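Service request form, structural biology core

Requester: graduate student, group of Dr. S.
Request type: structure prediction, single chain
Budget code: on file
Notes: please return the result as structure tokens.

Sequence provided:
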Amino acid sequence: MLKRFKVPLIVISGLLLLLLSLHLIVYVWITPVIEALFSESVSYYSSGTYAVTYDQMQVKPIQQKVVFSNFHLSFDSSKVQQSDSLSQKKWVELELDNFEIALDNFWTMVPGRYLKINQLIVNHPRLKVYDFSKEKQVQKLNLETISRFDAHQLIAPYFDSLDVVSLSIQKARLSWIKPQQTSPFGLGGINAVIRDLRIDSTTVNQNYGYPHAEQFEVRLSDASFFSKDSLYAFQLDEVVADPVQQQLRVKGFSLKPRHSVYQFSHAVGHQVSRVELKVHEVNFQNIDLHYLVSEQAFLVGKIQVKQPELSVFKDKRLALPKASTKPLLQETLRSIPVAFCLDTLQLQQGRIRYQEHVDEAASAGGIHFDKIFVSGYNITNVDSLRQKELLMEADINTTFMGEGLLELNLDVPLNDPEGYHRLQGEMKALPLESVNNMLENTAFASVESGQAYTLKFDMQLNNQRSVGNMQFAYRDLKIRLLDKENPAKGNLKQQLHSLLANWLVVKTNNPDNGREPLRIGEISFERNPEKSIFNFWWKSLLSGIKGSVGIGEHHSSATVKESEEKKPGLFKRLFQKETESE
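Core staff response, request fulfilled:
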């Protein structure tokens, strides 16, 4: 009887002994390596500042799996606060429900010093970035100095190389926290898929110390957050990042005010531009990931913006804000708090709507630009690039008021300390009645007839003033001044003023049927530093328009001569005041 069960008993005993041996190997050999990799190495390489904790680690040798529950990576905040050198850095905290590692070489990874992971699944990680860095001048970024990160050093005490066939991150959340910040920035619902990730000494040396992956996709869907002042809501329909291809795609971006057009300024307490923006898609190409990760610098080869729609409204009946100096282009770039360099910007099929409501007007008046196409080059706020006499350029094509084709060219020497820039433009045929929506509601005047054949200008501007010239060829220009109380009818006084304006002030034709050559308007305007750059451009153009219609300074196209004395202020008296446009 005993002989009958002898063989099975030997087999069962052998299996039990094998399982016990496997358990001992796992407990004595494998488990300490894994624990050291996730706990001791983190503490060692961070000088004890970081620590890893978890509720449970399950090692499953038969399935060749390791499962962690309630994993937590944290840092010692007291060390960050006490050390000036450490306070310059950013620190992270990571929590996740669980993550599972399926190994390919479970039994040979320790003696072979090679770790291969078939699948790594991370569920619901919450990553918090604590930014203790002091404010620094982003323009001082040195692009010739490369700070290195060495991913291989994290595994070197235990493994020579690491391969991950598939890494899946599900429902991640990212938070960015700065000291004394009331509402930290956060994004949730992030999913990522990484395939064929490799870390070894050769790979990291070829990638500035970072691992190599054949595929890397991060996807964020339906994210929304608010601005710091809670006046605006941001919405992102979808964001897809591909670090391997160095690309980022944003679909369905919108910036929406949280108050209506007339309530917005009242909520702020003074005149302010209410901005609404919708963008169909934005594509970022050739992103330098090294500088993005190590220096938080945004170096991009090309950005494509598709179908942006911008609406701006300003209620000018409210009190003006506290006076402040508005920057020109070079200073505006310097004020951006992130170091960036953009080689090429392309904007396609854009639209802009601008409206303002002035005192005594029954409704708002506005202008609009459609079918906007922009090509911009050499846009940066990094001093090491700006000091090389870099020229920022932009070519713009658009349709003004749905009628006139407008072409613009902008040149900006980025290292000019006086804000010098040059703006050139030309607009083709335009029925002048198309601007009545703005004129009638802001200047209380209306164009009864008029056809512009061309409007061409060239002006140079700096911090103090603008100079240039304008060629504005038109025919049969007639204007009508409106009664502010009853714009539709007008009274006898307004009719008389309209006649005086057309007979004595405004020239009906330019050139005047052979009797007078083309009047070239002189662009000359002294900048008001408390007004925006768009106000500066518009007032400069207006000075040239006035000269072309016979109101301001002009000279003949036949002979350029000294400007004659300024005409009496009849235009100003007729229109009561000059219009203000931000």
